[in-house]
Design goal:
The protein is an alpha/beta fold and about 400 residues long. About 40% of the residues lie in helices and about 15% in strands. The chain has a seven-stranded mixed beta sheet, sandwiched between helices. The protein has a four-stranded antiparallel beta sheet with strand order 10-12-14-13. A three-stranded antiparallel beta sheet has the order 7-6-11, with no helix packed on it. A hairpin with a 2-residue loop joins strand 6 (about 180) and strand 7. The longest helix has about 35 residues, at about 260-295. The model has no long low-confidence stretch (mean pLDDT about 95). It binds pyridoxal-5'-phosphate. Pyridoxal-5'-phosphate binds next to helix 4 and helix 5.
Length: about 400
């Protein structure tokens, strides 16, 4: 059989991995009502005893994660920036961050004027605990921005032990871990603050939006004022006492990073669907992981059984292949409608990036082990609509792609 015949037998994926989840009908109806009322600003007047959609969503997040306060903002990147700033990060302060993350994370550190210190990751895409300990001791950094990137949850017991030992505030980036736990406890409930995303390609699709959760009244009051509450903070439900606001109101600027009422309205009914979405994604994840890890040369990232993760994406490595071969695999997959992202790519593209590419902040060569892991790391999204047939198609396409590049002289 020639290569052409091989390719002809390879299916084209009949699922669009880039298509987002539709808004539930209940959300659409509520959004239409809201638009008719014109009350798109979150601080409109509400009837006595009634919560605005934004305050309602905040309250529900606080309850779901088990924290006292929640603050809605316009993105997770903004949430991370506000959490850094409101937890005391000042310009020039060093901020530890794991090297497997997304551009808005180093971006949030830059926004707060911080200086990122990249902490290495291990083969499982988790923060390297030895390197964390060493960098904490060497730099004296007092903040760790821990990104649960693509849903990979590091050993939070160990991370918190190290953080406590060094007097480090942990801020959790939970953009991919809404609905996920570490040993039964929700992510976002370990650090001083947890930040979630409502962006279209995360677990709840409001277009744009972010939520900060915390138990710290000073952090919460500052975040609310910083987010642009026009001193209308009594309209927040999951908020600290007046005392905290009195302390911060005169010395805290307004950055106008508010959550819109429309985003909150379309997000709310999706919370009710979340468990079902997660069940479907995790089902697809297990299938896909089993099929892909059976392919020679393909490694699916190993998971710790204590991670109760949400399988909204799957990461695989092609450690024995070079950049030219991986590039050819990406092209082959794309020609069969399978959209793989590749973190090792020279050019940042479509959600991929790695520390060496953040030229605005990172001295080059800071995380060589992370660079080596990301060099061959690929990534695909798992929408809830992925079926067993789709998983089989994907595995067939990837197997053919790998076969083609490894059987060329
Ligand atoms: C998407 C994402 C963010 C930022 O979320 P936005 O709401 O788009 O700002 C942060 N961290 C990770 C890991 C993400 O995937």
């Amino acid at each position: 059989m020639t290569t052409t015949d091989d390719q002809a037998a390879v299916p084209t994926l009949d699922l669009d991995l880039t298509s987002p989840e539709p808004i539930p009908e209940a959300g659409i109806a509520k959004a239409v009502d809201l638009m008719r009322s014109g009350r798109l600003f979150r601080y409109g007047e509400t009837a006595p005893g009634q919560l605005s959609p934004a305050a309602d969503l905040e309250q529900k997040f606080a309850t779901a994660i088990g924290r006292r306060y929640a603050i809605g903002v316009n993105s997770c990147g903004a949430a991370l920036f506000l959490a850094l700033r409101a937890s005391g990060v000042a310009p020039g302060d060093r901020v530890l961050v794991n090297g497997f993350t997304l551009a808005p994370v180093p971006g949030a550190i830059a926004h707060a004027g911080g200086v990122p210190v990249i902490v290495e990751i291990d083969q499982r895409c988790m923060i390297d605990l030895d390197d964390l300990e060493q960098q904490a001791a060497e730099t004296g950094a007092k903040t760790l921005l821990l990104s649960h990137m693509r849903g990979h949850i590091s050993n939070l017991d160990e991370v918190m032990t190290i953080a406590t030992r060094h007097g480090i505030n942990v801020i959790e980036d939970c953009a991919h871990t809404l609905g996920a736990n570490w040993v039964g406890r929700p992510t976002g409930s370990f650090g001083v603050a947890g930040c979630f995303s409502l962006q279209t390609f995360k677990h709840i699709n409001a277009g744009e939006g972010g939520i900060i959760v915390t138990d710290d009244p000073d952090l919460a009051a500052q975040a609310i004022i910083l987010s642009g509450s026009y001193m209308l903070y009594p309209q927040h439900a999951a908020r600290p006492d007046e005392e905290a606001f009195e302390k911060w109101r005169a010395v805290t600027p307004n950055f106008s990073l508010r959550l819109s009422a429309l985003a909150a309205t379309v997000a709310l009914p999706q919370l009710d669907e979340l468990d079902e979405r997660i069940r479907k994604m995790n089902h697809a994840y297990e299938r896909l992981a089993a099929e892909l890890s059976a392919i020679d040369g393909v490694e699916v990232i190993e998971r710790d059984p204590r991670e109760e993760f949400v399988g909204s994406s799957l990461q695989l490595r092609l450690p024995s292949l070079d950049a030219g071969q991986i590039g050819a695999i990406i092209d082959f997959c794309r020609s069969h409608k399978l959209d793989l992202k590749w973190f090792g790519q020279e050019r940042m593209e479509g959600f991929t990036s790695r520390p060496a590419q953040w030229k605005y902040i990172t001295p080059s060569g800071q995380a060589p082990r992370t660079e080596e892991i990301l060099r061959s790391l690929c990534d695909m999204r798992i929408p809830p609509s992925m079926t067993a047939d789709h998983c089989r198609q994907i595995a067939t396409i990837v197997a053919a792609a790998v076969h083609n590049v490894t059987h060329q002289q």
